[in-house]
């Protein structure tokens, strides 16, 4: 935590509130600003001159994903600093809650850049927040590594010079499942997805790609459900009434658990082939316990079944430090910091323009093995695992998971060039 | 669509209706007697579910499961009683909306408490023992638990009906719903009655949550999701009416079931996916009901409870000291950009404060002098933001004309919705504003081609000279000062006198020739335009906007700012918005549990200054007289 060298919370809050009580009516908020500003200006510069990484995320709105994420980041920071930092300079991580909305996020980003004087920005979970911070980074010429937001727009339609993205995008996740959907060779498909950009774009990508691979496919039902407020019984029944051979699911978190339980007790998905986005991630799989839907083909993170040395080293270090298995969030947080370290090393320091150039074509090795930040669209090629859900010891697991490299599912450089605005 | 499928979905909907009814009934009872708009009701529901899941995992056997449900609901009821005794009882003497702020703060604290106690991961409870199977119906399988729930709703309805009609407690509650003062005058222990009613309401919310153990995982987003639904159901049914709540719950559930069952339909050659309507179905129903039947289905016009607080003192024009203070504040505000050389964050935070002040001041015009509480003021903020953003990016207009387009868009929205809203009173008016705001939100949220859908619009930066932090800040300062000045002029013009006359004594105002509805309509529009100005500034300040600019959360923030500052004084929104923005910015960087801390600070402010900060300050300045 970065608060060590500042006055205690209560003192500062008192300082913030006191003028509100006694100062002239209209001046109070502004005086308080002045006071806070005065405090902040006294922050001493560290002697070791660390490289400051400003991280903002929706810790309050998405704690299930982001608490492991934070642990992953801290593990990476510890390892890198123990190995001597970057060019002799240690990394310092400053994390902030982005309030879960774009307006607060932009203010927090301003705060990190102006008050905390961070060298780079990273983080964000929600797509709208990620896009807003990306726009801010472009405007203020700050380097921004969007770690988690999935929207295709952040690297394509709204891509900009200063923004790179780590996590496999919505398009990539859908494309990873496509071979299985095609191989199943089902005629009648039904779709169920949360009614916002992520769900809509996943559904439309799925339909486009499947139609190309299998022109006689028919989409017999489409349910767009309000995020977090799924009427599971009704939706499960409506899907079954359309008599599909196969279902493409984009629901996640609480909606997924509700949907699976209702489908089980109604028997509406018996004998139906299901492909499902993200359902193999421990964050979403574990809460379903022994009700995990067996036979679904999913993308996810089977930490218990990955034999590569890179992952084993990560897994051991993580479990030694925290005494619990990692989640996908841990991987994303850890790899984001490792990526920044690799970029900083290649750039020879935190100069923004040099860092941008260094990230183009940057080779990184994370727990999932080596991957590249593509120069063409600033997208990392880190992939994900695809497997079939099964049960083991009363818990859902991914059986026979296969790592799908991001390169294999991304459009070519020439294609993405048409998708990005011509500016860099 | 096959008829049997439709029929099955309707039956299916009854189970969901029961779930809605439990929460809504509790909210309705609490409001009916205590007039408290209980923002913590969703949190009670969420706690009920968390407790039930925990107990179901710990206690053995079917008895443990069902006993656990009941225990969970009872525990939440006890919590409700404690909240009433320890917190709400202290603030009954101030205007009713302050209890809304207190329960809002409580909801923030309870949500963080749940995170601390149960951790971030969703908790899925076991299935209900004895009701794991399903029954065959119209060639489909209906889970036994759904059948149980479908009957549990009417059973609780009947039990509540008997409680209300046949017992002394019920008679007292009904009497208090109609005339609180009279009940107190007849020697009924009002304090005890309020505690009992609040506990009963909380118990029902907890029970509603606990009964969902078998259907959905306990998670931290439930409180807000359920709160919205519960309000809608209560308002459609008529505040205080329990049978109304049940009927409304059935109506909402059936409309949603219908949308889901219909799926994609062809209308005039265009395919439309009806399931997308589930995002906003309940608000469409509510808007329709309120426009046609302003008191809800079963509601009766409520005898306006004589305000417990003394009537507001008439506004006085600003004296010499006031002017001096205002000028001093302006001078300080003008000096902020000079600080940017030392500390660049100052104008950033100050700009957010100015936007909040403008937005809160616009709502204050409506709520203070206008006497109309709005739960959906974000609609006009958002219309302003989207109007500005679309004009700037889509039409390519320069900054100032784009800003004007935003204000006009917000004004047009307020003109349209205001016409319906100003005909209503009190909470019904507030709920109709909320319904319209939700409808606008859902259109913006789903109209991908124009509004960018849930991702919103990005790249909305102002032109020179507003593109620097200081430039935009000074422009925002000019807008805010102009806005505040205009509001003051408006309040002290004959228009403002007429508006306040309409608020304080509608009948007398109308008898003396004031067209109250028209005056209120104009005030609503003016307020909407000012909110739109705040939204336009916001779009330029952030460079990107998303549907969150017109979501409920922003409306509630504005409400809290206005009430925190104080309704009675025009300086209230300035202080409230400044304090709220500053507190939020400060606590967000301090602790992971910043919501709870923010809630605790708001609670402290409400308890310290029961009439808002402005009221508290004027009491302080009035000198050593004991207040009371």
Automatic annotation (TrEMBL), chain B:
Family label: Belongs to the binding-protein-dependent transport system permease family. LivHM subfamily.
Residue runs in coiled coils: none
Annotated source species: Ancylobacter defluvii
GO cellular component, one term: plasma membrane
Superkingdom as given in the UniProt entry: Bacteria
Keyword Signal (UniProt): no
Example GO biological process: amino acid transport
Transmembrane regions listed in the UniProt entry: 6-31, 43-59, 65-88, 100-119, 147-164, 185-208, 271-292, 324-343, 349-366, 403-422, 427-447, 470-487, 521-541, 561-583, 595-617
Pfam families linked to this entry: BPD_transp_2
Membrane topology: Multi-pass membrane protein
A GO molecular function held by the record: branched-chain amino acid transmembrane transporter activity
Record localization: Cell membrane
Keywords associated with the record: Amino-acid transport, Cell membrane, Membrane, Transmembrane, Transmembrane helix, Transport
InterPro entries given in the database record: ABC_transp_permease, BCAA_transport_permease, LivM-like
The UniProt record lists the keyword Transport: yes
Name listed for the protein in its UniProt record: ABC transporter permease
């Amino acid at each position: 935590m970065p608060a060590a060298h500042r006055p205690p919370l209560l003192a500062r809050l008192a300082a913030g509130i006191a003028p509100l009580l006694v100062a002239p009516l209209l001046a109070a908020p502004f005086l308080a600003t002045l006071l806070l500003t005065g405090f902040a200006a006294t922050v001493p510069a560290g002697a070791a001159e660390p490289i400051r990484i400003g991280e903002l995320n929706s810790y309050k709105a998405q704690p299930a994903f982001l608490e492991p994420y934070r642990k992953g980041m801290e593990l990476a920071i510890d390892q890198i600093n123990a190995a001597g930092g970057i060019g002799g300079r240690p990394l310092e991580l400053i994390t902030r809650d982005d309030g879960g909305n774009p307006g607060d996020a932009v203010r927090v980003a301003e705060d990190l850049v102006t008050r905390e004087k961070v060298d780079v920005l990273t983080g964000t979970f929600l797509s709208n927040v990620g896009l807003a911070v990306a726009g801010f980074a472009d405007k203020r010429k700050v380097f921004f590594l969007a770690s988690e937001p999935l929207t295709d727009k952040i690297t394509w339609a709204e891509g900009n010079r200063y923004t790179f993205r780590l996590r496999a995008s919505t398009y990539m996740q859908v494309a990873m499942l496509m071979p299985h959907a095609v191989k199943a060779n089902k005629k009648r498909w039904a779709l169920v997805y949360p009614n916002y950009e992520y769900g809509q774009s996943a559904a439309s990508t799925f339909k486009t790609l499947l139609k190309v691979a299998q022109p006689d496919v028919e989409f017999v039902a489409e349910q767009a459900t309000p995020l977090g407020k799924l009427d599971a019984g009704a939706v499960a029944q409506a899907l079954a009434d359309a008599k599909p051979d196969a279902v493409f699911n984009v629901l996640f978190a609480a909606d997924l658990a509700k949907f699976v339980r209702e489908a089980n007790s109604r028997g509406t998905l018996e004998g139906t082939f299901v492909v499902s986005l993200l359902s193999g991630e421990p964050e979403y799989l574990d809460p379903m316990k022994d009700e995990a839907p067996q036979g679904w083909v999913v993308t996810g993170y089977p930490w218990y079944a990955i034999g590569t040395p890179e992952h084993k080293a990560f897994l051991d270090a993580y479990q030694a430090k925290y005494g619990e298995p990692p989640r996908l969030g841990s991987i994303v947080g850890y790899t984001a910091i490792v990526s920044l370290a690799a970029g900083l090393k290649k750039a020879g320091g935190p100069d923004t323009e040099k860092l941008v150039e260094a990230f183009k074509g940057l080779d990184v090795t994370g727990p999932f093995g080596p991957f590249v930040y593509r120069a063409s669209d600033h997208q990392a090629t880190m992939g994900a695992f695809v497997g079939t859900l099964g049960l083991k010891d009363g818990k859902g697991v991914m059986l026979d998971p296969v790592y799908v490299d991001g390169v294999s599912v991304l459009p070519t450089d020439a294609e993405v060039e048409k998708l990005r605005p011509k500016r860099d | 669509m096959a008829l049997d499928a439709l029929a099955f979905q309707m039956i299916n909907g009854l189970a969901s209706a029961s779930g809605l009814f439990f929460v809504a009934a509790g909210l309705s009872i609490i409001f009916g007697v205590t007039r408290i708009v209980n923002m913590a009701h969703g949190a009670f529901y969420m706690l009920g579910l968390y407790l039930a899941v925990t107990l179901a995992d710990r206690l053995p056997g079917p008895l443990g499961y069902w006993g656990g449900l009941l225990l969970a609901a009872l525990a939440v009821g006890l919590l409700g009683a404690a909240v009433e005794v320890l917190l709400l009882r202290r603030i009954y003497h101030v205007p009713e909306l302050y209890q809304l702020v207190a329960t809002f703060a409580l909801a923030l604290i309870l949500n963080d408490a749940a995170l601390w106690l149960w951790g971030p991961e969703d908790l899925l409870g076991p299935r209900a023992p004895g009701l794991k199977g399903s029954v065959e119906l119209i060639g489909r399988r209906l889970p036994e638990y759904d059948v149980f729930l479908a009957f549990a709703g009417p059973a609780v309805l009947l039990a509540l009906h008997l409680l209300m009609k046949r017992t002394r407690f019920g008679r007292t509650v009904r009497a208090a719903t109609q005339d609180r003062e009279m009940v107190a005058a007849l020697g009924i222990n009002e304090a005890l009655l309020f505690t009992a009613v609040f506990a009963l309401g909380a118990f029902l919310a907890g029970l509603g949550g606990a009964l969902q153990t078998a259907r959905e995982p306990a998670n931290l987003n439930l409180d807000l999701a359920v709160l919205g639904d519960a309000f809608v159901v209560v308002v459609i049914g008529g505040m205080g009416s329990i049978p109304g709540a049940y009927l409304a719950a059935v109506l909402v559930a059936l409309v949603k079931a219908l949308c889901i069952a219909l799926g994609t339909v062809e209308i005039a050659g265009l395919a439309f996916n009806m399931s997308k309507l589930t995002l906003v179905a309940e608000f469409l129903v509510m808007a329709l009901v309120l426009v046609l039947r302003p008191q809800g289905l079963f509601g009766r016009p409520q005898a306006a409870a004589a305000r417990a607080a003394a009537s507001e003192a008439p506004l006085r024009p600003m004296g010499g000291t006031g002017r001096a203070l205002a000028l001093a504040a302006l001078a300080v505000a003008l000096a902020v950009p000079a600080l940017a050389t030392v500390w660049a964050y100052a104008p950033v935070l100050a700009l957010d404060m100015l936007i909040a002040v403008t937005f809160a001041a616009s709502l204050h015009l409506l709520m203070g002098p206008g006497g109309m509480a709005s739960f959906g003021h974000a609609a006009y903020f958002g219309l302003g933001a989207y109007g500005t953003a679309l004009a700037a990016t889509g039409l390519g207009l320069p900054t100032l004309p784009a800003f004007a387009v935003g204000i006009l868009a917000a004004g047009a929205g307020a003109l349209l919705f205001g016409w319906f809203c100003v005909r209503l009173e009190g909470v019904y008016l507030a709920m109709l504003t909320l319904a319209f705001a939700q409808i606008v939100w859902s259109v913006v949220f789903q109209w991908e081609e124009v509004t960018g859908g849930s991702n919103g619009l990005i790249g909305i930066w102002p032109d020179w000279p507003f593109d620097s932090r200081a430039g935009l800040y000074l422009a925002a300062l000019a807008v805010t000062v102009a806005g505040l000045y205009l509001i003051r002029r408006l309040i002290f013009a004959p228009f403002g006198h007429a508006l306040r006359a309409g608020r304080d004594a509608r009948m007398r105002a109308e008898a003396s020739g004031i067209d109250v509805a028209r005056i209120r309509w104009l005030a609503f529009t003016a307020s909407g335009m000012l909110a739109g100005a705040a939204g336009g500034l916001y779009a330029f300040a952030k460079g990107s906007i998303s549907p969150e600019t017109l979501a409920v959360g922003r409306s509630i923030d504005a409400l809290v700012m206005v009430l925190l500052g104080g309704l009675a004084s025009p300086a209230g929104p300035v202080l409230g918005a400044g304090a709220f923005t500053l507190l939020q910015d400060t606590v967000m960087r301090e602790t992971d549990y910043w919501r709870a801390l923010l809630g605790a600070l708001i609670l402290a402010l409400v308890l310290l200054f029961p009439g808002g900060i402005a009221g508290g300050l004027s009491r302080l300045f009035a000198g050593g007289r004991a207040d009371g």
